[in-house]
Amino acid sequence: MNELKILALDTATEACSAALQVGESVYARWEEAPRDHTKKILPMVQALLDEAGITLSELDAIAFGRGPGSFTGVRIGVGVAQGLAFGAGVPLIGISTLAAMAQGAYRLDGAERVVSAIDARMGEIYLGRYLLQDGLMVLDGEEQVTGPEAVAQAETLSGLWFSTGTGFETYADLLSGLADELRPCPAARLPAAQDMLPLAKAAWLAGSAVAPEQATPVYLRDKVTWKKLPGRE
Question: Whole-structure pTM over 0.85, yes or no?
Answer without folding.
Answer: yes
